[in-house]
Amino acid sequence: MTRLRPQHASPSRLHAMLVGPAGLPGIDAEAERIRNLLESRGHLVDCRLAAREDWGKGRFEAGSDSGIDLVVVLGGDGSILRTARWMAYDQVPVLGVNLGTLGFLADFSRDEVAAALDEIASGRFRLVEHLMFECEVLRDGGTVTRELGLNETSLLAGPPFSMIEIGLHVDGELATTYRADGLIVSTPVGSTAHNLSAGGPIVRKDIDAFVFTPLNPHTLTNRTVVDSAARVYELVVPEPNAGSACVVDGRVVAPLTSGDRVRVRRAQPRFMLIETHQHGYYRTLREKLGWGGGLRGIGDRSAATRETP
Questions:
Q1: Under a CB-based contact definition with an 8 Å cutoff, are residues 227 and 201 in contact?
Q2: Angstrom distance (rounded) from CA 218 to CA 157
Q3: 127: left (phi over 0), alpha (psi -120 to 50) or beta
Q4: pLDDT in tens, 278-300
Q5: Catalytic residue positions, numbered
Q6: Does pLDDT of 307 surpass 70?
Q7: According to CATH, where is 3.40.50.10330 located in the chain?
Q8: DSSP 41-82
């Protein structure tokens, strides 16, 4: 049994915040519906809907200073990535409500929210911590930018779309040099995103590791590598293209110039995602990726039958 620890409320009364992208069709009505669900159960509720371009501006004000115990994210996985960045070094447990399409992180449908809130209140849930990383772009002895991320850092060749060389250093030692269209450095959470579409492996979300997947490598022996998150990794691009860039969680954070070093290492905060007993890791993979051992739909029905008490 797991329980959230209310910071300023009574043990049975949580202070929740609803966040999501303003302007998404139906989000105002859904936010109001979930607010009513929470308040009917005696919880305090704040709501902050913001345009996507405004996420990350100002302080989210989660954590010990605000008394926020639970963040309910409305939208999709992109909304959760923005929320994780918004919370920065004061991470708060997240319940993701999927208003988008796939939804690996935003795993609960609208119809499941009421039951999920009841399970959270009764302690029938798991609080799963996930690796976050810091990405630092170093140039001429200084720091160009430092970013906190959840999914991945990517170095992309960009226009004029010729391959680039990327040297990978592990704890100061040269490991290999990739000649490719780019390199993805993914967390386990991000292993089902860009990494998966590039042919990388799925890594269980609660493992502390980084996944290195080259994009269209020139040498076939350049395969995906999984290594410990306890190490410090530096990526060096001696001769980037005019459009080469460092990208963190889908956002371009810096163009690359000759001699730049991109340092990636484990961050101190942990992203915390709520899972209930009906929303386990393998159920998510099975449903989102269509795993079934047969024709799509047949396996899903069989699995549902096996899970029925």
A1: no
A2: 13
A3: beta
A4: 766 777 777 777 776 654 554 44
A5: 77
A6: no
A7: 15-123
A8: TT-EEEEEEE-GGGTTSS----STTTT--EEEEEE-HHHHHH
**90-140 tens-digit pLDDT:** 999 999 999 877 777 888 889 999 999 888 888 888 898 999 999 999 999
**Cβ 163 vs Cβ 157: under 8 Å:** yes
CATH classification of 15-123, choosing from 3.40.50.10330, 1.10.10.10, 3.90.770.10, 3.40.50.2300? 3.40.50.10330
Specify the CATH architecture of the domain 133-266: Sandwich (2.60)
What average pLDDT score do residues 38-47 get? 93
- List the one residue out of 237, 224, 244 whose CA is nearest residue 139: 237
* Percent of the residues in the chain that have a pLDDT greater than 70, as a whole number: 85
This prediction's pTM: 0.86
Task: For CATH 2.60.200.30, list the domain ranges present in the chain.
Answer: 133-266
